Amino acid sequence: ACGAGTGEIAPTVSLAPTAARPGAGYASVLLEEAPFFDMDSQGETTLAALLEELSGGWTQVEVSRFAVVDLDGGGPEVLLWLAAGSDPDYGFEVLREAEGRVLGYSFTYRSFGELKADGSFWVSGGASDYGVGVLRFAEDAWSIQRTPSCVSTVGENGEEVLTYFVDGAAAEEETFQAVCQAQEEKEDALWRPFTQEELESAFQEREGR
Questions:
Q1: Which of 136, 115, 109 is nearest to 186 (CA)?
Q2: What is the pLDDT along the chain (209 residues), one digit of tens a residue?
């Protein structure tokens, strides 16, 4: 559950993008100074326009929180946690820099369960189908790789059969559970309120690394 305050985002000198500043493209998009390429519609849009489209005239979708996390090992992405009216868990928008532009990907609200600082998260396809996922981007698509994972099938007599995998290979339940426990103990991703102050702080921190 994730309620968080929202705030007006106004351009400031400290967030003004420069060629030398990491994440300059993200700053431009978040400050409404530049569009990004929406992978769903295959066209350019702005953050404000996307939120208006998602609102659909019947609710108000807004960004409540954001996180800066390297999801696929290729550099930091910006995750935007979306809320709609009284629903704090509407979904996510992931911004990714690639080939000199910012790309936007939309995800459902269950996509990033307990997101960790290393970019991994819990995924679930049902009560007995679950695991740890990492996001992988291709040229024009994305996929979630599960490791470890538990897969449920139906046996010859109609019973549920659980198969466990770790690093792509079948594993004993004890090994699977140990990896899951290690996942639980990882550092959580830092979700910040979507305010001018927090945006400025996040980008200054990345600039100093």
A1: 115
A2: 333 333 333 333 234 433 334 477 898 899 888 999 999 999 999 999 999 999 998 899 999 999 999 999 989 999 999 999 889 999 999 999 998 899 999 998 888 889 999 999 998 877 788 999 999 998 778 999 888 999 999 988 889 999 999 998 999 999 999 999 999 999 999 999 999 889 888 877 666 56
Rounded to the nearest 10 degrees, how much is the dihedral formed by the CA atoms of 194, 85, 56, 135? Answer: 50
pTM for this structure? 0.82
Sign, CA torsion 79/209/183/141: positive
Contact status, residue 95 vs residue 37, Cβ threshold 8 Å: no
Rounded to whole angstroms, how far apart are CA atoms 104 and 164?
33
Q: How far is CA 166 from the centre of its chain?
A: 23
How many C-beta atoms lie closer than 10 Å to residue 135's C-beta?
Answer: 23
State how far the Cα of 142 lies from the Cα of 9, in Å rounded to an integer: 29
